Amino acid sequence: MALTSQHDDTAERSSLLRRVFFDAKIRAIFLQVLTVAGVVGFLGWLINNTMTNMAARSLSAGFDFLDVSAGFGIGFTLIPYQEGDTYLRVFTVGIMNTLLVAVVAIVLATILGLLVGLARLSTNWIIAGVARAYVELLRNTPLLLQIIAWYFGVFNLLPRPRDSVVLAEVFVLNNRGFYMPSPVAEPGFGIVLTAFVLSIIGAITLYKWEAARRDRTGKSFPAIPAGFAMIVFLPILVYAAAGSPLSWDVPALQGFNFVGGVSVPPSFCALIVALAAYTSCFIAEIVRAGIQSVSKGQIEAAGALNLPANWTLRRVVLPQALRVIIPPLISQYLNVTKNSSLAIAIGFPDLVSVWMNTSLNQSGRAIPIVAMTMAFYCIVSLSVSLVMNRYNRRAQLKER
Amino acid sequence: MLNCQVGLPTPGFYSLAEDGTWSGADVDLCRAVSAAIFGDPDMVEYQSVTSAVRFTALSNGESDMLSRTTTWTAVRDTQLGLDFTTVNFYDGQGFLVPADSGITSALDLDGATICVLTGTTTELNLADYFRANGMTFTPVTNENVNVLVETYLGGGCDAYTNDKSGLAARRSAFPDPSAHVLLPETVSKEPLGPVVRQGDDAWANLVRWTVFGIINAEELGVTSANVMEMTASADPNIARLLGTEGNIGEGLGVSPDFMVNVISAVGNYGEIYERHIGENTPIGIPRAGTLNALWNNGGIIYAPPFR
Ligand SMILES: N[C@@H](CCC(=O)N[C@@H](CS)C(=O)NCC(=O)O)C(=O)O
């Protein structure tokens, strides 16, 4: 009796053990718990180790410095910043500047890349050759070198403020930056803005209505040009009717330099031009590959159906090319954002420059500062890829 | 080997010859410490990094000491894990402008664009000075002094600001030094000196007393030329400095005659000064009548006694 029960017991225990080892599901859970414990333990050890070592070197790791006044000037800010503002403010200034560079460079690089990509496919050999030379030259030299070359070779060599290049009497270019007039809204400008927003909504509605009608009746109607015309002309009409409620703050030479309007420093110009030109090469190649990936048969079939050329492009080539273009384009956009940190070489106050460099050195809070910088780049990269992936899913071929 | 950190090559303080050898007033302190430890001034590995990363490179152990025109401030001394040993040069911040700009005072600089090194006390003082005087400015910043100087020379900023010694040093290497003038104002206190990592008191002592030894040597008239004869001196102050009497080297963990090695290698404070940055050098910073003269000569260079 006792013997059998003991036997049962061991049998049960060994079967439990056996299940842990041989039941794939339980084994997986067991291993996962082990892994999580390992990772958490390792992180804990890392943090503890860091804290101990920092304490031993009397360095502080806390975030309490964020509301301390930073005390240094920043050459270019999108939001108001004064020398007495806090480190947190410096962080925000850096983020805004980095985002500005990324957005402007991405827009320019995309336009440029599209043009160059199409030029590379041109049947005119001069255009194709020039486009090819452009791509090969810029793609095969280091970006840092290009940034420095644009800065010292172009923007730092521009004339001094007194001898500025003035375009159309209001745009000013000199070795301190690029100056533009800035719009100042007068009372009544709200109506113009409202008209603008309404016309955008109207254009979208028109487009949807046109698509639905085309599906129903087969009759088409130029909804896109009509929509654009609406967005452009309606606000202009309202603007004129409201008595032009907008004035311009035009930059004027005063003392050392131009004041008034909006301006960007030479380091910004050099950075944007270099980033946009460099990235446009990769985008051009992506565009070219995308268009070439659409088989000739598709275009010939469209021709056989007697589709107009712009329909062939819009409804046959592009939808298929975009599938190939979007994923690598996403990674180019992420690259621009990360490459913008090379700003530090020419002193543009982006996040890495004002935060990871200046603030870190002045406050000595290496760990929190590096952590915050990494978190920022991580969040930006993840959200860009999230948005683009969602778009990509829509652009993908729907297989049925 | 002693890992001694200097800045990007700067005439007079830490300049780099074509053959890769370093020289200058701050370099001589590295050599002095090396001579004190090893009896040989050349056991030094020089590390040249920008101002912005100097403290990181020291606190993570890459460098053993900083000898590079670094200002002693409260935050640096108490919050960055650093230990300032002593002051070996009293400086202050100034402005350099093109001579043809017509600017004669720092107070004329309202609205100006100003080139400034990041990660320095210079950029903080600059902001303070303009704030205190109700003036505005646009900083053009960089961590690399060469980029900044190129920008200034290309007209990318109206003035270049730094410690006055740094301005004199930089200007000496300009294509035409006489085309640039130093404005009269001194807008800050910049006590410069060697720095070590916090937490190694014996090491801090050695660096500190090497500087004191060099200063005392000048006061006592001990030079690189006469140091050997001086070892026979009957003056007990000299005897203690050179280790023929007392046991000061022992307390510092080096040989009793360590100062003999130091002074034969680099000379005393005055010799170092005149050799690298004095009036007869291209840097040309006068010493007489300034804070950097010896205390018994109208200045405040004063070292505690070797006893
Ligand atoms: N004393 C200030 C400024 C130091 C500084 O800017 N030094 C000048 C020379 S006196 C320089 O040009 N340094 C260049 C470098 O260290 O790379 C500080 O400690 O922050």
Q: Topology, please?
A:
The complex is a heterodimer of chains A (400) and B (307).
Chain A: H1 2-22, H2 24-56, H3 87-120, H4 125-139, H5 143-153, E1 165-167, E2 171-174, E3 177-180, E4 182-185, H6 189-217, H7 223-241, E5 246-249, E6 252-254, E7 257-259, E8 262-264, H8 266-292, H9 296-304, H10 309-339, H11 351-363, H12 366-395
Antiparallel strand pairs in A: 1-2, 2-3, 3-8, 4-5, 6-7
Helix pairs in contact in A: 1-2, 3-4, 3-8, 3-10, 3-11, 4-8, 5-8, 6-7, 8-10, 9-10, 10-12, 11-12
Chain B: E1 2-6, E2 15-16, E3 22-23, H1 25-38, E4 44-48, H2 54-59, E5 65-66, H3 74-79, E6 82-84, E7 89-91, E8 93-98, E9 112-117, H4 121-132, E10 137-142, H5 145-153, E11 159-163, H6 164-172, E12 180-182, E13 190-192, E14 195-197, H7 201-220, H8 227-230, H9 236-242, H10 248-252, H11 258-266, H12 269-276
Parallel strand pairs in B: 1-4, 1-5, 9-10, 9-11
Antiparallel strand pairs in B: 2-3, 5-14, 6-14, 7-13, 8-11, 8-12
Helix pairs in contact in B: 1-7, 1-11
Descriptive account of the structure:
The complex is a heterodimer of chains A (400) and B (307). Chain A is of the alpha+beta class. Chain A folds into 2 domains: 2-56, no CATH class; 87-181 and 250-395, MetI-like fold, CATH 1.10.3720. In chain A, 68% of the residues lie in helices and 7% in strands. Chain A has helices at residues 2-22, 24-56, 87-120, 125-139, 143-153, 189-217, 223-241, 266-292, 296-304, 309-339, 351-363, 366-395, and strands spanning 165-167, 171-174, 177-180, 182-185, 246-249, 252-254, 257-259, 262-264. In chain A, the strands form 3 sheets. In chain A, strands 1-2-3-8 form a 4-stranded antiparallel β-sheet. In chain A, a hairpin with a 3-residue loop joins strand 1 (165-167) and strand 2 (171-174). Chain B is of the alpha/beta class. Chain B has 2 domains: 2-89 and 192-297, 3-Layer(aba) Sandwich (D-Maltodextrin-Binding Protein, domain 2), CATH 3.40.190.10; 93-188, Periplasmic binding protein-like II (D-Maltodextrin-Binding Protein, domain 2), CATH 3.40.190. Chain B has 12 helices and 14 strands. Chain B has helices spanning 25-38, 54-59, 74-79, 121-132, 145-153, 164-172, 201-220, 227-230, 236-242, 248-252, 258-266, 269-276, and strands spanning 2-6, 15-16, 22-23, 44-48, 65-66, 82-84, 89-91, 93-98, 112-117, 137-142, 159-163, 180-182, 190-192, 195-197. Chain B has a 5-stranded mixed β-sheet. In chain B, helix 1 (25-38) packs across helix 7 and helix 1 (25-38) runs antiparallel to helix 11 (258-266). The model of chain B has no long low-confidence stretch (mean pLDDT 95). The A-B interface holds A 54, 56-60, 71-75, 83-84, 152, 156-157, 160, 175-176, 254-257, 259, 265-267, 344-347, 349, 353, 357-358, 360-364, 366 and B 51-53, 55-56, 59, 75-76, 78-81, 110-113, 116, 118-119, 123-124, 126-128, 130-131, 137-144, 147-148, 150-151, 154-156, 158, 197-199. Glutathione (GSH) binds at residues 7-8, 10, 13, 50-51, 68-71, 117, 120-122, 145, 162-163, 165-166, 190, 192 of chain B.
